[in-house]
Here is the input.
Amino acid sequence: MTRFAMVALLTACAAGGVLLALLVSPWWWFAAAPFVAVALTGVYDLVQRRHSVLRNYPVLGHLRFLMEALRPELQQYFVERNYDGRPFDRDTRSIVYERAKGVSAEEPFGSERDMDQRGYELLVPSMAPVEVPDEAPRVRIGGPDCAEPYDMALLNVSAMSFGSLSANAVLALNTGAARGGFAHDTGEGGLSEYHLRPGGDLVWEIGTGYFGCRTRDGGFDEKKFAEKAAHPAVRCVSLKLSQGAKPGIGGVLPGGKVNAEIASVRGVPQGQTVVSPPYHRVFSTPRELVLFLARMRELTGGKPVGFKLCPGSRTQFLAVCKAMVAEGVTPDFIVVDGAEGGTGAAPLEFADHLGMPLTEGLIAVHSALTGAGLRDRIRIGASGKVATGSDIVKRLAMGADYTNAARAMMFAVGCIQAQRCHTNRCPTGVTTQDPHRARALDVVDKSARVTRYQQATVQSALRIMAAMGVRDPAGLGPHLLRRREDHGRFRSYAELYEWLAPGELLTGGPAGWAADWRAADPDSFAP
Here is the structure.
């Protein structure tokens, strides 16, 4: 309410100055004019819907835009540093913001990136480009045991929970997804009315806290799960094993953000900090995990079921593959989250030192499934700093079938990376449960931005593929992605990494993979 009081005070001062100028002396106009201008600016800031910062910080919020105009580097340092210390570069953020606003992201005078540095990546253009397809391809999610397959878009909203995000942020994301025809992952915070009301396609994520399908003692409630999974908006169900920002540790929602509504959605006490366990209670071995996934699919009535993880040990994942082979049961999809991903707060040691980066994790999962003869039954999603069309194409070339974005979608709804998520004082209304701050996020405006961003980014990916001479994602492969090793020498990803042939592990395989396959135990998660 402070912002309303400030604008009211400015308006009163302006009115007083005008009265003095009219009734006492014209010289008072010199004092009244600045107050009138500032008061009108404050009123406009409160009622406009384009800028969340100005709705929460009338008049003062203009300092941010002034700082950005005068010195973009200062804005980047003070208000746009990343949650985990590894920021998107300014070019990437600009692309997201401009696409969300419907502004062309094209720039004159070429790239400013250092192409001479070691590690620089390039996608291989073709001397015979093809036409860009009229419609973006979709990915059929649903293995042989799935009764209700789902056609996934190439770019979707990654997992972010209600509670971590405000109600308006969730509404904007789901409304944008509904309008654009792509999926919205709920995060592990349960199904809320803000996920369901707009009618967007949902991937319901179930974490270790089993929020939304939780027994009183924190276990998994099959009846509640089946009832909610039956909702027509729930198109897929994802079991979260780990996430990129903090693999091996549960999430935390501060008690100050657990209001009555969130407590009801999650099935937890109001006002108490919610700590998700680091492990699942319903399984303890790879075999039990695979059988639990089959049980979840049965409870959904045959909807696609999968799991999300940030890989660490290749042997552990191969143990899951062995369990799939032994039981004849596979998930319909697996989402690979990179260690560099994550939108929420995490201990710095976890963010910096646990889990594989998305490139290594994605290639390992793709190769393991291929070598075990399972790849044709399972689709792979990639999540972790996916923001641009080139990001999508690179991940598809590495073995993914589709991608998910979290941070970029937060940018689209107005996030400025102020790093105030855990304080409940988000300046743009994205990550707060304070209704006065959350009102700054206009759902109509921001949902349109989400749709525009997703559509423009997918279109960019299609244009890049066409420039590479590729008509369909199936034509992409690691040979079309190259990395600079040293001056004058590039090597393709087909050379840099070991790629397995279908079923190769079942008959031996390369020495390193064969040793890991022999060590993998379907009845143990031993690394």
